[in-house]
């Protein structure tokens, strides 16, 4: 009984604990998911937007300068006069470079194919030289200008963004390509900033997926190298759109988030990459706190359930053992208590007496004063009995208005004097039954138990004596 009660409490505890763990884990996964969504749908695209708008801002001024140069009458006149004074063009380019603080200024003439630069005439461009492909691309372009990112002809180490502006005369004849070059410094400082501040890698890849620019300091992209296959697979899904976000699981339990944005001016993809390692630290901390709280809450619930069930089961046990009206034990319990009492009296070799008591003419009390008044009298009688008997003695409510005593360490003479006292007390008591009082008497039959005698045998003898007492006038007792 106790074991199954404990098992029930334990089962409730386990169910509550499992419920709490399930709730904690669910909220953990949702929180983690929302962190991931936040990274891939907001943070990375925002970084990408910042960099792209920086690129556009950076390109605006050089494009304007190149446009001015392409429409400058000096350039047109100088060209039409047959490029007689190369120094004039070199000086013009030098002035532009100084005035606008660009890193290069150039003009390539269509008629001579000469490459004029602020530092002099560098070379003659040729269709067969791959390094000069940009010129022919600009020449055949339908747009006024083409942006090209390349190493500088004047400084091969330096990555430069060239604004190649087509020079067209008034009658629409193509005269050559003019423009300025700018460094990727600002974009580079953004790449540095995102790396230092957020640990994000920012780099550019071309349409084939090859890394074209990853900052002046050539950021460490070894993680990309070691997970090449995954990156390539991610890239293949990214190039289908101008802008997209993907993520994949890399070894060591890391998640890689990638955002790509096509930069039409460069014909490159800008990639913002973040490897998750610690992003969800707070979520994980929250999970641990949740789990600890779940454990504490489960323990509290366990203790509460245990306390409540113990209270109820004690109450139920009491109800099963004791008579509600009088507080005396009931018939079912008597048997067990009797076995204990007789075992103890045999062991100690002490006398044990049994008394049967019945209230005289009790029916009249009910008839005259009502059933509730009868109840009050019965409980009043029981109270008097309890006050008179010892703690070790057993009082059992044997029937409606019948009681049975088992008096430990009590022989017939001691029992006789006790019953006499009881008879007198009952007779002298006026039981309060609301507006009036009731006086009653009781009759009793008592017997001393023989060793190894059964309860029914002893009861039968006491009952016979009670019957005799009733028959012989009531308010008395008989023993035998
Ligand atoms: N109020 C109340 N009455 C009870 C209860 N149990 C039994 N009785 C009543 O007690 C009365 C017992 O009546 P009887 O057995 O005829 O005997 P009596 O009137 O006491 O007369 P004698 O025993 O012959 O002296 C019956 O009327 C029962 O209804 C109880 O719990 N409460």
TrEMBL record:
It is found in: Cell membrane. GO terms for cellular component: plasma membrane. The chain crosses the membrane at residues 7-30, 287-309. Its EC number is 2.7.7.65. Keywords: Cell membrane, Membrane, Transmembrane, Transmembrane helix. It catalyses: 2 GTP = 3',3'-c-di-GMP + 2 diphosphate. This is diguanylate cyclase. The keyword Transmembrane applies. It is a multi-pass membrane protein. Its cofactor is Mg(2+). SMART domains: GGDEF. Residues 350-480 form the GGDEF domain.
């Amino acid at each position: 009984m106790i074991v199954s009660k404990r098992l029930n409490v334990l089962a409730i505890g386990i169910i509550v604990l499992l419920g709490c763990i399930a709730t904690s884990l669910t909220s953990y996964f949702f929180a983690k998911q929302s962190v991931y969504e936040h990274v891939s749908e907001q943070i990375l695209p925002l970084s990408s937007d910042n960099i792209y708008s920086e690129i556009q801002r950076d390109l605006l001024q050089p494009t304007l300068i190149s446009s001015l140069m392409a429409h400058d009458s000096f350039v047109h006149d100088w060209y039409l006069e047959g490029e007689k004074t190369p120094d004039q063009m070199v000086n013009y380019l030098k002035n532009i470079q100084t005035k606008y603080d660009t890193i290069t200024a150039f003009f390539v003439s269509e008629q001579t194919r000469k490459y004029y630069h602020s530092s002099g005439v560098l070379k003659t461009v040729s269709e067969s030289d791959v390094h000069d492909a940009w010129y022919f691309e600009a020449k055949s372009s339908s747009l006024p200008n083409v942006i090209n990112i390349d190493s500088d002809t004047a400084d091969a180490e330096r990555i430069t963004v060239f604004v190649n502006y087509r020079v067209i005369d008034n009658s629409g004849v193509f005269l050559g390509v003019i423009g300025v070059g700018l460094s990727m410094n600002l974009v580079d400082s953004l790449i540095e900033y995102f790396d230092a501040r957020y640990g994000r890698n920012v780099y550019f890849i071309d349409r084939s997926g090859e890394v074209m620019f990853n900052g002046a300091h050539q950021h460490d992209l070894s993680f990309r190298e070691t997970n090449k296959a995954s990156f390539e697979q991610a890239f293949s899904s990214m190039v289908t759109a101008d802008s997209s976000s993907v993520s994949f699981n890399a070894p060591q339990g890391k998640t890689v988030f990638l955002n790509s944005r096509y930069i039409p001016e460069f014909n490159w993809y800008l990639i913002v990459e973040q490897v998750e390692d610690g992003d969800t630290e707070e979520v994980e901390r929250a999970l641990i706190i949740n789990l600890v709280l779940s454990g504490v809450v489960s323990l509290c619930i366990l203790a509460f359930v245990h306390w409540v069930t113990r209270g109820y089961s004690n109450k139920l046990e009491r109800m099963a053992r004791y008579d509600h009206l009088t507080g005396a034990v009931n018939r079912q319990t008597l048997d067990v208590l009797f076995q204990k009492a007789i075992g103890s009296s045999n062991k100690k070799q002490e006398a044990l007496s049994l008394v049967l008591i019945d209230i005289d003419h009790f029916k009249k009390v009910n008839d005259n004063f009502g059933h509730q008044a009868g109840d009050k009298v019965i409980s009043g009688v029981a109270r008097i009995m309890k006050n008179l008997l010892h703690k070790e003695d057993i009082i059992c409510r044997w029937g409606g208005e019948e009681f049975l005593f088992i008096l430990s360490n009590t022989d017939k003479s001691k029992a006789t004097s006790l019953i006499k006292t009881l008879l007198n007390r009952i007779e002298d008591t006026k039981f309060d039954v609301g507006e009036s009082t009731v006086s009653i008497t009781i009759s009793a039959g008592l017997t001393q138990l023989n060793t190894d005698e059964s309860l029914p045998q002893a009861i039968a003898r006491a009952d016979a004596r009670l019957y005799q007492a009733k028959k012989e006038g009531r308010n008395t007792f008989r023993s035998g």
